Amino acid sequence: MSSIEILRQLLTQLRTADTDLSIFEARFHRYQLNPCLTEDEVQVFECQNNVILPDDYRQFLLELGNGGVGPGFGMLKLLSKNHDCYCLDKPFPYESPEDMILANGKLNFDGTFPLAEYGCGMVALLVITGKQRGKLWFATGEDGIFPLGKNLCGFLHAGLDAYMEAEEPVCFSEWYRDWLVNSLATLGVNV
Question: What is the pTM of this model?
Answer without folding.
Answer: 0.87
